[in-house]
Amino acid sequence: MQLAMGRINLLRPYLLGLRGAMSKRVLGAVASPERHRPAMLFARGFSVAGDKGGASAKPLQFEQVSTADLEGDEVEMMRGLSVAGEDTAAQARAKIELLHRVACRKGIPQYVDPSTHYVVLTSVELAKGGECCGNMCRHCPFGHAAVISK
Fold it and tell me: Which domain of life does this protein belong to (predicted)?
């Protein structure tokens, strides 16, 4: 224990220097017409222990979707999809559409893209930001209003 605390104290000046450099770079960024506007740090707030939803909720994965979660045409959409194996482009799009619908309905802010394994924000979560961030988000509820076209 004593040895670990000693190592932390040795690294402290280095870690504090990094924090200062990062805050200058992130907070000092200026929006310009040529560049995307930087996303606000902690714009969606912090999550606390016991908080349901928000940043503390785990992203929804395709394996977690059951027929009980589905409504209407989603049951038919699910029949042609499998959990394992390679997907065609149409199957990948269908999985994304299905995951997005279920995640929005359940109030889960993110889902895992089954083909790339990236975590993607839902349109419900993006709408909490209040305006388009300009980052070409997949499910932008604002129609990519702040995206700069080249």
Answer: Eukaryota
Number of domains in the chain: 1
Is residue 15 a part of any domain in this protein?
no
Position 112 pLDDT exceeds 70: yes
**Residue among 117, 109, 112 at smallest CA distance from 64:** 112
Any domain includes 45 = no
pLDDT-based confidence at residue 59 (cuts at 50, 70, 90): confident
Residue 75's domain spans which residues? 52-150
Structural contact between residues 59 and 112, judged by C-beta atoms closer than 8 angstroms: yes
Cα–Cα distance between 98 and 70 in angstroms, integer? 9
The answer to the question of residue 23 being in a domain is no
What's the chain's Rg over C-alpha atoms?
A: 20
Q: Which residues contact 77 (CB under 8 A, 6 or more apart)?
A: 70, 94, 97, 98
Cross-strand partners of 119: 112
**What is the average per-residue pLDDT within 45-66?**
62
Token pair belonging to 125: 């979560």
CA dihedral 45→109→120→133, nearest 10 degrees, is: -50
State the pLDDT confidence band at 110, using cuts at 50, 70 and 90.
very high
